[in-house]
Write a structure and sequence with these properties.
The protein is built from 25 helices and ten strands. It has helices spanning 12-15, 35-49, 83-100, 103-106, 129-140, 157-173, 178-191, 202-212, 221-230, 235-252, 254-269, 277-285, 291-311, 320-330, 339-349, 353-372, 377-393, 410-420, 430-441, 468-472, 476-483, 498-501, 505-513, 522-528, 535-553, and strands at residues 5-11, 21-23, 61-70, 76-81, 110-111, 122-123, 125-126, 192-199, 454-457, 489-492. The longest helix is centred in the middle third of the chain and has 21 residues, at 291-311. The chain is α/β, with parallel strands linked by helices and 556 residues long. The protein starts with a strand and ends with a helix. It is elongated, with a radius of gyration of 32 Å. The chain folds into three domains: 5-217, no CATH class; 222-409, no CATH class; 420-553, no CATH class.
Length: 556
C-alpha cells in the first residue's frame, strides 16, 4: 500500500490558522534554540521587512520546511521536524502582539473560545507536556510575556530558552517604533513562507525528516518508545514518569541511552535481533501494556545498572574496586555483546559483591576468549544468550561457577593458546592482552591513565645491516618468528619513534624504553632488567608470559 505524501508552500498566516493544530510529540527533544539562533532569525526578518519602502515590493523570505504526521481531513498535526521554528515564531508573534496590543494578532497564536457556545479556546502550537503550561501562560496568553519568572532555578532547560528568547524579542522590538513593528508583523504573516510536508504514516515521516534535514538529530527508537509508553500512563502520572525517563537519559547521555534499549531487548529476548529494536520491543516486550512497570522495573533498574557499569561506579563495602576494574577491562573488548548479561546479573545480585566479582571474572574470560578466537557476531551473541538464560532461570542460585554458559571448551582453550603462542602483534587484541598481563603482574598497583600507550618491539622488525641484532639473532626464520611474539613486546607511554626502534639494545633501553629514568609498565621494566636480548631470553620470557596467561584466564 503506497503512502500518500503532500507538500504545500504556505505563508505564515495560513500556517498559523484553523487549518493546522500543531502538537510537539513527547518523544521530541526539548526546545533548544538559544538567543544566537533566535537573534539570527530576527535580524534576517528585520532586514527583509525593511528593504523596500513599498510593502508590495518586499521580497519573500523562506523559513524552511515542516515535516508532519497529518491526515488531510483534520487539522491535528504531529511535528516531526520544525518545532524550533514553530516555537520561535510563536514567541516572536506573541511579543509583537503584546508590543502592539493587537487583538488581531492573537488569532494567529490561539483561537479564543466561546463560553456561551461551548467552544473551548484552541492554541495553534502545543509543546511537550512538560513545557506546555509554561508556554501557554507566559507566551501565548496576552500580556504575560513581560512577567516571565526571572528566577530560573525551577524552570526546565527548554523553559529557560523560551524565557531568554522572549526577553530578547521584547528588547529588540522596543528599538522599533509602532509603525515598524506593524510592518514586521505584516511581513512575517504575509511574506514569510514554510513548506509543509505531510504524511499519515509515522515511519514515512521519519524518513522524510532524515532526507530533508540531514543536519538534524534523527528521532531514535528511544524517542518513539517514550511517546508509546508514557502516552499510555494516566495523565496525572505522566509528568512524574517523563521526569524519570528524561533524568535517566540525561545521566547516560543521548547515544548511550539509545544503546540501552538494544541491551534491554537482548536481556528480554535472548537472541539476535531479527528486526529493528523499535519493532521488537514494541511487538515482543509490549511495554505500553504495563508502562509504569516497564519504566520502574526494567528501564530504571537496568539503566541505573548500565550507568554504574560504563562509569565504573559500583558501590559496595568490599570488592567495589575489583568490580569496577573489570568494568574498565570489559569496556575495552571490541564489542558490547557482554553488556546485557552484565547488567542483568548485577541487577539481580547487586548486594552480593563476591558473586558479582566472580561472574565478571568469568565473563571477561569468555569475552576475551571469543575475541582471540575471532568468533563472529551470530555465535558470539548466542553464547551470551545462553548466559542470560542461566541468569534468568536462577537454577544455580546465581553461582557463576555453575554457569556452563560461562565456560570455555577444552578445544577453545587449546585454540586460544595456539593463537597466543604465535604472532600477537598483528591482532586487534594485542594491546588489551599486554595491558591485562601488565595489570596482573603489578598486583593491581599500576595505573593506565596515560594519554598515549603504544606497543614496541624489543628486537626490531627491520634490524639494520651490521647491527648487533643480526649477530644475536643470526637465523632469519627464527628472527621473523620471534619479532611479533609476546615475549618480544613491551608497552610505552609515548609515540612510536621509527629511528629509535632500531637502536641497539642498551641504547634502546636508556633512550627509548625509559621516561625520566623509569618505565610505567611492569612488562617493560622486566626488559630493562635484562643485560642482553637474545633468542634464549625471548623464549624464556615468552614461556613465562604464556604461563601467566594460562593462570589469569584459567586456560589449563
Amino acid at each position: 500500500m503506497s503512502t500518500k505524501i503532500s507538500a504545500k508552500e504556505l505563508p505564515v498566516k495560513e500556517v498559523f490558522s484553523a487549518h493546522y493544530s500543531f502538537e510537539i510529540p513527547p518523544y521530541q527533544r526539548p526546545y533548544s534554540w538559544t538567543k544566537e539562533q533566535a537573534g539570527q532569525l530576527f535580524d534576517d526578518l528585520k532586514d527583509f521587512a525593511f528593504q523596500a519602502e513599498n510593502f508590495a515590493e518586499l521580497k519573500p523570505y523562506f523559513l524552511g520546511s515542516l515535516v508532519l504526521i497529518k491526515s488531510e481531513s483534520i487539522p491535528q498535526a504531529q511535528v516531526i521536524d520544525g518545532q524550533q521554528r514553530l516555537t520561535t515564531l510563536t514567541i516572536l508573534l506573541s511579543a509583537l502582539r503584546d508590543a502592539l496590543d493587537s487583538d488581531e494578532l492573537t488569532r494567529y497564536i490561539y483561537e479564543k473560545g466561546d463560553e456561551f457556545g461551548g467552544i473551548p479556546e484552541h492554541f495553534r502550537v502545543k509543546l511537550r507536556e512538560r513545557d506546555n503550561e509554561f508556554f501557554k501562560i507566559y507566551i501565548q496568553r496576552e500580556g504575560n510575556i513581560n512577567n516571565i519568572p526571572t528566577n530560573t532555578d525551577s524552570l526546565t532547560d527548554s523553559q529557560v530558552r523560551i524565557a531568554e528568547n522572549a526577553n530578547f524579542f521584547v528588547t529588540q522590538l522596543k528599538q522599533l517604533n509602532t509603525n515598524e513593528q506593524k510592518i514586521l508583523a505584516m511581513y512575517i504573516l504575509q511574506k514569510c513562507y514554510l513548506v509543509l510536508v505531510a504524511t499519515e504514516d509515522e515511519e514515512s515521516a521519519f524518513r522524510i525528516f532524515s532526507v530533508l534535514n540531514d543536519r538534524g538529530l534523527q528521532l531514535s527508537h528511544a524517542d518513539i518508545l517514550k511517546a508509546d509508553i508514557i502516552g499510555k500512563i494516566e495523565p496525572d502520572k505522566q509528568e512524574e514518569y517523563t521526569k524519570k525517563w528524561e533524568d535517566l537519559e540525561e545521566e547516560l547521555g543521548t547515544e548511550t541511552f539509545k544503546d540501552l534499549f538494544g541491551h534491554i531487548r537482548m536481556v528480554s529476548q535472548k537472541s539476535k535481533a531479527k528486526d529493528s529494536i523499535l519493532k521488537e520491543i514494541r511487538e515482543k516486550m509490549k511495554p505500553d501494556k504495563k508502562p509504569k512497570e516497564f519504566i520502574d522495573k526494567t528501564l530504571i533498574v537496568l539503566g541505573n545498572t548500565y550507568s554504574e557499569v560504563i562509569n565504573e561506579t559500583y558501590r559496595s563495602i568490599n570488592k567495589a574496586k575489583e568490580i569496577n576494574n573489570y568494568f574498565n577491562w570489559l569496556k575495552q573488548i571490541n564489542n558490547r555483546d557482554w553488556v546485557p548479561p552484565t547488567i542483568s546479573y548485577i541487577a539481580k545480585y547487586y548486594d552480593e559483591p563476591e558473586k558479582v566479582l566472580n561472574f565478571l571474572r568469568k565473563l571477561e574470560r569468555l569475552a576475551f576468549g571469543l575475541w582471540v578466537l575471532r568468533t563472529y557476531a551470530t555465535p558470539r551473541i548466542e553464547r551470551y544468550a545462553n548466559v542470560l538464560r542461566d541468569i534468568e532461570e536462577q537454577k544455580y542460585a546465581g553461582d557463576p561457577d555453575k554457569f556452563s554458559s560461562l565456560s570455555l571448551e577444552d578445544t577453545e582453550k587449546t585454540n586460544i593458546l595456539e593463537t597466543l603462542n604465535r604472532d600477537v602483534y598483528n591482532t586487534q587484541f594485542c594491546k588489551y592482552l599486554l595491558l591485562r598481563l601488565d595489570a596482573e603482574l603489578s598486583d593491581g598497583s599500576a595505573s593506565y591513565n596515560h594519554k598515549i600507550i603504544t606497543i614496541e618491539h624489543v628486537l626490531p622488525r627491520s634490524p639494520k645491516s651490521g647491527s648487533q641484532w643480526l649477530k644475536d639473532f643470526p637465523d632469519a626464520k627464527q628472527r621473523t618468528e620471534m619479532t611479533n611474539c609476546i615475549g618480544n613486546l613491551v608497552l610505552l607511554s609515548r609515540k612510536r619513534n621509527s629511528s629509535a626502534s632500531n637502536y641497539e639494545f642498551e641504547k634502546k633501553k636508556e633512550k627509548y624504553f625509559r621516561v625520566d629514568g623509569v618505565s610505567a609498565f611492569v612488562l617493560t621494566t622486566q626488559v630493562l632488567n635484562e643485560p642482553v636480548w637474545t633468542p634464549q631470553v625471548v623464549q624464556t620470557r615468552h614461556r613465562n608470559l604464556i604461563s601467566k596467561i594460562k593462570e589469569v584466564w584459567d586456560l589449563t
